[in-house]
Amino acid sequence: MRTTVTLENDVAVRLKRLRKSRPFKDVVNDALRAGLDQIESKSFSKARRYVITPVKGRPLRANLDNIAEVIAEVEGDSYR
Questions:
Q1: What is the residue-wise DSSP string for 12-76?
Q2: pLDDT digit string (tens) for 53-75?
Q3: Cα separation, 21 vs 74, whole angstroms
Q4: Less crowded by CB within 10 Å, the N or C end of the chain?
């Protein structure tokens, strides 16, 4: 089957780097198989869990109610 696929530049560079002495077609097919195997595996389909760990110590700024003031403090005088 012939299909035209447009690759992103970063993907094309990685595929060309892997190419070495094998045909480009084989490298692309192997990469697609590996990616599809991972997508179809049970571990990929499970929801990814993120753990948020509290930061120790006190916050650098006690009051975040006035967001414009916080931005001005972070950005400096050029903000206003």
A1: HHHHHHHHTTS-HHHHHHHHHHHHHHHHHSHHHHSPP---PPPPPS--S-S--S-HHHHHHHHH-
A2: 777 777 677 777 888 888 887 78
A3: 52
A4: N
pTM (global) more than 0.85 = no
Q: Are 80 and 73 in contact (CB under 8 A)?
A: no
Decide: helix, strand or coil at residue 79. helix
CB-count burial class (<10 Å; 0-12, 13-18, 19+) for 38: exposed
